[in-house]
Amino acid sequence: MKMNQEIWLAGAVLKAISPLPYERAQRLMGPMSSKAMSILPLKSLNCTKTTITRADGSKMRICIMRGKKTAGKTVGILWLHGGGYSLGAPEMAIMSFPRHLINNGNCVIVAPDYTLSTVKPYPAALDDAYTSLQWLKKNSKELGIECEKIVVGGESAGGGLTAALCIYARDKGETCIGLQMPLYPMLDDRVTETSKNNHAPVWNTKANKTAWRIYLGDSVMNNGVSPYAAPARETDYHGLPPAISFVGTAEPFYEETLIFFEQLHNAGIEAVLKEYAGAYHAFDMMAPYATISKDANRFLLEQYAAFTEKYIVD
After folding, report:
1. φ, ψ dihedrals at 116, nearest 5°
2. To 10 degrees, the CA torsion angle through 159, 162, 163, 169?
3. Dist. CA 32–CA 282, nearest whole Å
4. With contact defined as beta carbons under 8 Å apart, do 84 and 20 qualify?
5. Distance between CA atoms of 31 and 9, rounded to whole angstroms?
6. pLDDT tens digit sequence for 105-145
7. Considering only CA atoms, which of 128, 34, 35, 36 is closest in space to residue 78?
8. Which of 7-11, 44-48, 181-185 has the lowest mean pLDDT?
9. Is the pLDDT reported for residue 1 higher than 80?
10. Ranges of H-type helices in the chain
11. Residue 50 dihedral angles phi and psi, to the nearest 5°
12. pLDDT reported for residue 247
């Protein structure tokens, strides 16, 4: 696959220095990444930090970020960070799409420090995502949220967790999610045409296989894997929230993202996906200066405004 020339150099540098294909590296970097990022204050995102309580009594750190615009009703957003399920922290919002939502919308974003697979494998991350959703819903008035429906979004593994949470919430009879934004989501533990021999920057076949193995253990690629773990395993897409996203054609998740959005569409759900030729994984975060990245963020902001007006704002 020919790489977009504007982002090629940044990708080449990232590929040369990335240790992510190696399991030991992901296992070492996972807890370290969360602790290192937790010290970032995120003042530019109007961020405050607190903890919420899990069912077992343990605490989970969350970031609460507030939009800088005041026009219209305040929308509640649950944002799930990326990192292959094994890495990352909610403070990644400083470089991912939430920064655009904060600068351009009237919203409150709750971003949890969900349990990484390098600490505890599936279903710990999903349990934390659902706990965060329930907390956001219960505390919406105190947070200043004025809409009953909630937006759920995330990039990469956070996109996969977004899709999984929407399926899980639907199956539990929860109706508070009005829109999902799974950006270039990590959906399928099985091999696809674009994930089997992918050597692109940032995230490739080796890194992907390693991350899924850490997340699912010995069950990876088995027939019994739940769609709550790998949403591409879902067979019934009815009743899921509308969806918006973008994805690059050079990345491992390209095919699974196309299939997921096609299945939503076939189930009668409004789902809008834009493809970017020659773009690798997380190009919007890794090369934010590029024309293609600016276009992707502009597209998503426009779709977010249209979809929230239609499905979220009363």
Report:
1. -75, 150
2. 180
3. 21
4. yes
5. 29
6. 999 999 999 999 999 999 999 999 999 999 999 999 999 99
7. 128
8. 7-11
9. no
10. 5-17, 23-37, 98-104, 124-138, 140-143, 157-171, 205-216, 254-266, 283-286, 291-311
11. -150, -170
12. 98
